[in-house]
Structure formats: C-alpha cells, structure tokens
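CO-FOLDING WORKSHEET

Operator: S.A.
Ligand of interest: zinc ion
Run index: 236
Mode: holo prediction, single chain
Checklist:
[x] sequence pasted
[x] SMILES validated
[ ] output reviewed
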Amino acid sequence: MVGGFTARHAGNLCFKGPDHKAVSAARSSALTELGVADFPLVEAQQVHGNKVFAVTANTLPQIRRPDGRWVAPASDALITVQPQITLSLYYADCVPIFLWLPEGNAIGLVHAGWRGSLKDVAGKAVDQLCQLADGSPAQLRAIIGPAICPSCYEVGQEVAETARKLPHPETFLDHRNDHWHLDLKALNNKLLVRAGLLPGNIEVSPLCTRCRTDLFFSYRAEGTGCGEMGAFIAIL
Ligand SMILES: [Zn+2]
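OUTPUT RECEIVED:
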C-alpha cells in the first residue's frame, strides 16, 4: 500500500482552472513519484456531500468518461479493496483523511470540508469500507492530513449551531472575540472515533494549509482560482 499528499511545489492538481496541460503534467509526476503511474487514477466529483463511492471491478468501467478519466459521480469519499487502482481527491483547506486496514488490503480516502464533516462523511466512509472489506473499525488506521486550523477558520452562526449538536462540541468549536471558530481536524477525529476507530490509530497532521501558504494552497488565503493539492492512496 502507498499513499501521499502533495505540497504546493508539486503544482495545482485540480482540473477546475484553465490550464489542463499543466495539471496533467503535475499529476503524472506525483503519480510517478509514488510509483503508481501505471494504475487507473480514480477521482470524484467532489460536492461537499457524504456519498461514498466503492471502486470495484464492476464500478470502475461505469465511471470511465469519454476523456479517459475515471470520475465517481457526486461523491466525497472513495473506497476500494482492489489492488493497482489509485484513489485520489483534491483539496485547498478541506480535510484529507486516509483510511486503511493494517494488512494493506482495504483503503479509503475522504474529502471533508465543513459541509461534509457535519454530514459525517468520514463515519460513512468507515462504515462502508468495513462492509466492503469485511473488517472492523477497531482495526482501521487513519491519517488526518494538512488542513485549515481553527484560528484560521471562522464560521457563521448557522454552521456553529449545527456543529453544536454533534457530540463533544467543546473539543472542536470555540467562541472567541464574538466569532465562532471550527476545528475541522478535531471534529473529524471525533467522528472517526464515534465510527469505531481507536484514538491511538488516528494520526493528525499539525500543519495548517492557511498558516503555511509557503507549503500549501489555501482557498481562505487566496480565494477562488487558487490551486489544489492532491491526496493519493493505492494498494500495490
Ligand atoms: Zn492556520
């Protein structure tokens, strides 16, 4: 099994912008560096929802588009037990979550911004990955990658109200100077534990994408049109 998260110097990895040639080149070099250049690269039409797409021998051909890319419709999490398929999702401040069984025979990848987090996309991915792999969440390992930190992440009253209904909101929601701040990494950590992961099996990156624009692209720092990083995971 192999996985990784790109930094800013790897270039923009998302096809939203006009320069598709540069994105293709940046993706190719990231995949070559990971040693997965020959595998199909599956991505998802990320919509800030909680739909999980299982990539199997049956579903892979169904999501092949005329341009040759494999794109899972309206999904924010990808799971598979198939070797030699690379799962990928793209980020600029949202939370990347890598999931895998220690035997390396089942993997998942999650994109969680505030909308997806409040809809528990991480918990859904855990449930469905365990079903697909016939595994237990207590066996699963997770890495919560670089994402926006709570100081950089002010949210509105409505978001705060919804977040307060989740268990232990004091661990991820903070009211300071009349503003609400949401800790997306801490929230997703809680959601993973609620889904059955052992806290000791979850590793959290301390890096903030907005504090460290020297390393990462940040939507909150740079606005629309900023580049996006890629997260990749594959069973070899
Ligand atoms: Zn920050």
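REVIEW:
Residues 149, 151-152, 208, 210-211 surround zinc ion (CB under 6 Å).
The mean pLDDT is 97.
[x] output reviewed
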